[in-house]
Amino acid sequence: MKQLSPADQLFLWLEKRQQPMHVGGLQLFSFPDDAPDDYVAQLAEQLRQQTRVTAPFDQRLTSRLGKSYWTEDTQLDLEHHFRFEALPTPGRIRELLAFVSAEHSHQMDRERPLWEFHLIEGLQDRQFALYSKIHHALVDGVSAMRMAQRMLSHDPQDRDMPPIWAMPTRTREHRQRPSVISSLSHLMGESGRQLGTVPTVARELLRTVNEARKNPEYDSLFRAPSCILNQKVTGSRRFAAQSYSLQRIKDVGAAFGATVNDVVMAMCASALRTYLMNQDALPDKPLIAMVPVSLRKDDSTEGNQVGIILASLGTHLADPGERLRHIHQEVNAAKQRYASMSSEEIMNYTALTLAPAGFHLLTGLAPKWQTFNVVISNVPGPSEPCYWNGAKLEGMYPVSIAMDRLALNMTLTSYCDQIEFGLIGCRRTLPSLQRLLDYLEDGLNDLEQAAGLSPRQGTGTGS
Known about the structure:
This protein has helices spanning 6-14, 39-48, 78-81, 93-104, 141-150, 180-188, 191-195, 198-214, 216-219, 246-256, 260-278, 320-339, 343-363, 435-450; strands spanning 2-3, 22-30, 59-64, 67-72, 82-86, 115-121, 127-135, 237-245, 288-294, 306-312, 374-379, 387-388, 391-399, 408-415, 418-426. By secondary structure, the protein is an alpha+beta fold.
């Protein structure tokens, strides 16, 4: 048995009917060229033979003396976890996303290993899909993405490839992408190592507070505006997904001297501004996003060099070019703040600045301390075409978590020449959430016009 870490335990504590705490992913594939019409049914039969389940998929929760542990499930029922589904006709992307929306709303049975794997047939144009979900206490979003990539191949001739639950076990990596919960658990633990960071963290936090006193816009980093995004949620979810051209985003970034992440944030800002204006709910002050960003300065792969920033999205600005420049300045200022700090100091600084948000998420007792309004997370994906048992991966869309007081999560990943957006939100709190996809496209068009580029309509999957 292995005891859960503080962060993993917190994900279990946070879970309730209206707040499932699992992450997921949707992958869209095309049939191999030589595949018969019943290809997906044959694939399902092959997968049913994969009865050897490896860690962490063979682990279930158990409790002893009030503490939670992972233990091997010796009676695992694969039929419960692997499900072969068929979409209703006409099998459009709309039906696929409706299926994911419904499945992502359901909590998983804690008496069993906390994962599901859905193979979905019935799509138009000789396509099929995989939807998987796994509890955040078992893996974080980046680990899930890495496992999904391990299941794939760059060779279209590879066959007999195992599903995600039957891959060879690897040592779990401890480079979790920062989040509010992981930052708070970090603050609670490893106190001896943290004592040495106190002078630097205190100095930078004091500098930030002093800036906030002098600059009214800076103050928003500590108190995000009241917004419909930050109400209590129901258990019903709406998932929307769309692919956008990475080259278009790079061209805008080059024109403004901004990064891909800056442009993506500006697209999100534009979409949120339009959506909230149409709801007559746009705050006067700019929305604040919680954004994990890379702080890596070299080509190394070791260590955790990712930090969390709280950035104003400039939603009070009408001009798209001005909004992008505002976001670029915000992100650069945060990166410069971290430039002289060690990884440990960055983690502790992040934990302290997010402490009010974490306390509010956990208890709901600090409504005036809405530190940020929305999560915008960018998880890197494969840069080359991928295949699974000869089927070409056409798109991969992250399906994240919506929570009380964080009714919308905007997560994206890169794949080849695309940026794949996955939006998850509460259906009741955020009606017609799928319109955000059109508003993202409009935001990119507006940025291209502001940059003097010719707008080019995207051609990705979406609904």
